[in-house]
Amino acid sequence: MKKIKEKPSKRKKNQWARLFLSLFVGLSAAAITLLILMLLDGRHKEFFLLGEEHVRLEYGEDYTDPGVEILTVGRLLPSFIEPERVYARQTPDTRRLGTQELEYLIASNGKEYRLTRYLEIVDSVPPQIELTPIPDGEEPSWLRGGYIEPGYRATDNVDGDLTASVAAALENDRVVYTVADRSGNTAQVERLLPAGLDAPVIELVGGETLRVPSAMSWEDPGFHVTDGKGTDLSALVTVEGEVIAYRSGDYELVYRLENALGEEVVARRTVTVEPVRQSDTVIPDQKTIYLTFDDGPGPYTDWLLDVLARYNVKATFFVTGNQKDYRDCITRAHEEGHTVAVHSMTHNYYGIYASEEAFLEDFMACEDMIHELTGSYTNVFRFPGGSSNTVSRFNPGIMSRLATMMPDMGYYYFDWNVDSNDAGGASSSDEVYWNVVGGCSHGANVVLQHDIKDFSVAAVERIIIWGLNNGYQFLPLDGSSYGAHHGLNN
Ligand code: ZN
Question: Which comes out higher in pLDDT, residue 442 or 397?
Answer without folding.
Answer: 397
